[in-house]
Design brief:
By secondary structure, the protein is of the alpha/beta class. It contains eight helices and six strands. The protein is 41% helix and 15% strand. β4, α5 and β5 form a beta-alpha-beta unit.
Length: 226
């Protein structure tokens, strides 16, 4: 089996949630030495601690999960707004400060954000979550072009309707109403497989993807095109 990530040390955050399990499995199959961190990144010094513990990092996958609030826009509280951004946005600059200087010095590295297509298409009762996921993507676009001259590639996957235990657990998938929604809203007619998504993430962390900088790739079965 080809191993395009052989010899690469790859740190995956929140490895026990969202896309973490699939990412760890696929990256290991492709030859990477996977550093699977399950440490929460809410405290200001947590990101620096995780990176320091990991040692040399060739690629960092910012896999950040947070239960999406379903609050009407006119009822979103300051606490909800701050909690959503604290979980999904605040860790990014902290991880960047911890990992990018070494990558810039080596002139080699990848920083991939596992984001959400909720930032690419309007959704009712999703204001705080969509805003935070949108901030992630804007951050990637800005940092991506800034890092490009240093041969460090920063990109994002904006996903929805991808099989994962955090947002689409088995009980949700088994619901007939959800199955009807899939057929109605997703041109693919099914969830994108966890391995399909993880394999694309692995590609973006491989040398074959050195040409992509500051880009956001929708992985959602065509949902954003509807």
């Amino acid at each position: 089996m080809p191993q395009p990530l052989k010899g690469q040390r790859i740190l995956i955050t929140q490895a026990d949630a969202f896309m973490g399990p699939a990412l760890c499995a696929v990256f290991a199959e492709q030859g990477a030495e996977v550093i699977a961190s399950t440490q929460p990144l809410l405290e200001p010094d947590a990101a620096a601690h995780v990176v320091a513990q990991a040692g040399r990092i060739d690629a960092l996958v910012a896999n950040l999960a947070f239960e999406a609030p379903t609050t009407p826009a006119d009822a979103v509280t300051d606490d909800e707004w701050r909690a959503t951004f604290a979980a999904l946005v605040d860790p990014l600059p902290r991880l960047a400060r911890a990992v990018l200087p070494a990558m810039m010095a080596r002139r080699s590295g990848k920083f991939l954000v596992m984001g959400s297509a909720a930032a690419l298409r309007g959704m009712k009762r999703c204001a705080s979550y969509s805003a935070a996921r949108g901030a992630q993507l804007a951050w990637v676009q800005a940092v991506g072009v800034e890092m490009a001259p240093h041969n460090v590639q920063v990109n994002a996957i904006a996903q929805n309707f991808v099989d994962n235990p955090t947002y689409f657990p088995p009980e949700v998938q088994a619901n007939p109403r959800f199955q009807e929604r899939l057929k109605r809203e997703v041109p693919l007619g099914r969830l994108v497989g966890a391995r399909e998504d993880a394999q694309f993430a692995a590609y973006l962390c491989s040398p074959a993807a050195d040409c992509f900088v500051g880009q956001v790739f929708p992985v959602c079965g065509g949902w954003v095109a509807r």
